[in-house]
C-alpha cells in the first residue's frame, strides 16, 4: 500500500524540528514549552527557533499534548448541521464512540461554505487532532479539501474519486433491495420507483437494489415503472399521474419527502394508502415518516453508525475493505403504509 | 512584563507576511480575505501569496490566540442535536459568533442523558473553556447541572428558576402576537388556537400573544376557541372536529407539526386551506412548513440568533436585562396558507 505521506504534504512534527536544528526532540520540547530549569544553551535555543520558523512548525495551543505526543481530540467537519437532523445523528454516533476511547470531538459546522471549511480544518490541525472525520449530509463524491491531507482522515457519508482515503458510506443497494422486498413480501408485482433527478450514489444504488429484488422474485424489470422526480414533496406530488397511468399497486419512493408529496397527490385522486397503492419511503426522517397518515414504511439511513464506524476506522479499530470502503446496511422500518392490497 | 515571544515560538502573523512581501498589513488583509474592489497589482498579490506559503501563515483566528495565550475554547452543551435541526441551528449561530471573536466551540451532544451531560461539562472544564453555553432544543426551565457553577455560563433556549445565570430565550409572546396578526391582517375575526398540552413557556407565552393581538384588534377573547392538543401531527388531526364546530375561519397552531396534521384532518372533511380555513404554524421547520400543500405561513423560532447572542452574552458583548434575560423576537414567515377568506 502506498504511504500517504509520499503523496501528500504532512504536518511538520517536533521530530522534524529537532533534526533540522541538530538537537534532541526533548530539547525542542523544552524550548517550545518554555520549561523552567531546562539548561539549554542560547545557541541551541536559537537553532530550534530558527528551525521552527523555517519549517512552519505550529506549536499546539495545549502544551501538555505536545509532551504526551498527541492530543486527545478528534475533529469532525460537517456540512449541514443546521438544516437537517442527519449531521446531528452522525455527530452523535461519532461522539459516543470517541468518548468511549477517551477522545473529545471537535465539531465544526461549515454549512457548505468553503472558507468556513478551510478555517475549521486549520483550527483542527492547530489543535493537533488525532485525525479528522469529514462528513456530508447526503452521500456523494467530494473533492478533498487541501488541509485534510495534513492529518489522518476518514470520509463519512462521502468518498473521494481517487479512493485513497477510507470512506464509510451507506449501502444504497442494500437499502433499495430492502425497500422493494417490503412491497414484494405483501404480494405486489407491479412496483413503481420514483427515483431522484440528481445523479448520485443514492440514485444508482437504490435503482440497482430495486432491480435485484425484482430479479430475486422472478419479476422482469419494466423501465416504464421507473421515473425520476425532484427529491422532495413537490416531486412526489407531480409523479402521481404517471404512477396511476402505469397501474402500479406499490411505489418505492427515493425518500420520505417524496412519499409525503405522493400521499397528497394520491389523496386528491381518491387513491387510498395502502388499500389502493402501498408506499415505501427512504431515510426514516422521523418527523415525517412516523407521522404521515398512514405512518410510512421506510428504510433507515444509518447516520449514527456512519459516525460511530468513522471513528473506529480513524482509530484503526475497524478496517476498510480493499477498495477503501466500509458500507453500512440500511435497515427497513415497517409502518402502516404497506399491506396486502385487495386486488391480489 | 515578560514578552512571551522571547520564550516561546510564536505564530506567523499578518505583519510577518507584510514584511516579507514588502507590502502593508492592509494589503495582506485584502489578499487573505479576497476583498472585492481592493485594487492590488498582480505583482504585489503574488508576493503576498508567496510569503504566506514560505512562512506557513495560517489566515485564521487561532493564530493570534497562540500569541495571546490562554484557552480560546467555548463549550456548548446541547441536548438533542440528533433528533431535530433546532440544536444544529443554535450551534451554527454560536460557532459563527465564536469564530468571529477567535474562539473555538467545543460541542457536546447529550441527547438528554445525565451521565453524558456531566461528562461533557467535565471535559469542557478540563480544557479550561472560557465559558459554557447550556442549550435545550425546546424552551423550558432547567435545573442547573452542578458542574456549570464552575464556569461562566449562559443558558440558551432555557432558564433556571433562580435566574442568577443569564438566559437567552425566544420571545414567545411576540411570536404569538405575530402569528395571530397574520390572520387578523387578512380579515379573520374568529380565530382558533390549538395550543400544546404541555405546560411550558411556549404554551403560556403564545396564548398571551394571541390574546394581546385580539385585544389590539378589538376582538373579545373567547375561551371556546382555544383548545389544547398533543403538539404533533396527531394532535392537529384530532382537533379538526372541535375547530369546525366552532366555525373558526382561521387557526393558529402551536407548531408546524400540528398544522400538518390539521391539514390532513381538514382535507378529510372537505375543508380547503386557505379558502375555508386559514392556517398559521410556529417553528418554521423548513422540511414541513415550506412543503405542505399549500405551503404554511408560520413564525420562525430564532435558533441561530439564540446561539449567536448566547456567545455575545458569554463574552460580555451583550448585556442581559435586569431579570437576567435576553429575549429574541420570532419573525413571521408568510406563505400561501393564509389569505382573505371569501366569507368576509
TrEMBL record, chains A, B:
Keyword DNA-binding: yes
Family matches, as SUPFAM superfamilies: lambda repressor-like DNA-binding domains, Periplasmic binding protein-like I
GO molecular function term, any single one: DNA binding
InterPro entries: HTH_LacI, LacI/GalR-like_sensor, Lambda_DNA-bd_dom_sf, Peripla_BP_I
TM region positions: none
Assigned keywords, A-Z: DNA-binding, Repressor, Transcription, Transcription regulation
Boundaries of every HTH lacI-type domain copy: 12-68
Domain of life: Bacteria
Protein name per UniProt: LacI family DNA-binding transcriptional regulator
Species annotation: Actinacidiphila polyblastidii
